[in-house]
Amino acid sequence: MILSRALLKSVLPATTDDDTTRYVLSVVHVHPDGMVEATDGKILVRARDPYLQLDSDYPTKDLPPVTTPDKAVLLPTSIIGKLLAAMPKKSTLPILCCAQVGVTADGTVQARATDLTVPMVADITEAQSHQWPMTDRVMVKDGDRPCLKLILSAAMLTRLAKIATEAGRAKSENTVTLEIPTEDKYREGDAIVSAVRFTTGSTITVEGVVMPCRL
C-alpha cells in the first residue's frame, strides 16, 4: 500500500514516545484500505488520502517485490521518521513523496521509501506482534449524535494555543475554555456563526472571542 508524506505527517502529532509501557502509542495503525490512525491515549485521529496511488506505480529499483498486506499493519514512528527523511524534499514524481508498505515473498513486512538513489528499507515484522486497541468503541463519527459545529482555522487554533501557553506557569497543563452558544440565533444549521468567548490562563487571566470560519 502507498502512504503519502502528507498522510503520515497528519497523524504523527497524535503519537507519543513518552509512555514506554504502551507500545501502540508510538505507532501508526495502517488499514489495508489506506486509512491510518494514531493515538497518544488522549487524542485519537484517523486520516485518509483521497488520492490513493497504486502499488504498481511505485519504483522498484533495488527493491524486492512486495504484495499489499491483507490486514492492518503497525508502523513505528521511529521508522516513519526515517521514511520521511528518505523521500526527496521536492520531486516532479508525486509517487516519490510516498512510502510503501508491503509483504515480501518470505512473509517479511517491509516499509520503504526511495529517492531513486538510495532506498530506505525497514523490516517491521516484529512490530506486528503488538495488538492495536479497539478504537471503534471510542471513535465518534460524523452524524453519530446531535452536535453544534464550531469551525476554526488551524492558524486560529495555533494562536489560541500560544496565548494559553504564555498565560500560565505550568505551560504543558494550560487549558482553553470555549463557551459555545446554543441559541438558534447564533448558528446557521448546525454550525456556529457568531463570536465564541474563550478564557485561558492560570498566572495571567485571559478572555476574548474568536470568530468561526464561514465555509
Question: Secondary-structure map with pairings?
Answer:
Blueprint: E1 2-4, H1 5-11, E2 27-30, E3 36-39, E4 44-47, E5 73-76, H2 77-86, E6 98-103, E7 109-113, E8 120-123, H3 154-166, E9 176-179, E10 187-188, E11 191-192, E12 196-200, E13 206-210
Antiparallel strand pairs: 1-6, 2-3, 2-5, 3-4, 6-7, 7-8, 9-12, 10-11, 12-13
Largest sheet: 4 strands, antiparallel
The CATH topology annotation of the largest domain reads as: DNA Polymerase III, Chain A, domain 2
SS elements, strand count: 13
Radius of gyration: 21 Å
- Counting copies of identical and different chains, the oligomeric state is single chain
CATH architecture of the largest domain: Roll
Overall geometry comes to elongated
Which sequence of strands runs across the widest sheet? 1-6-7-8
Helix content: 10-25%
**Broad structural category:** alpha+beta
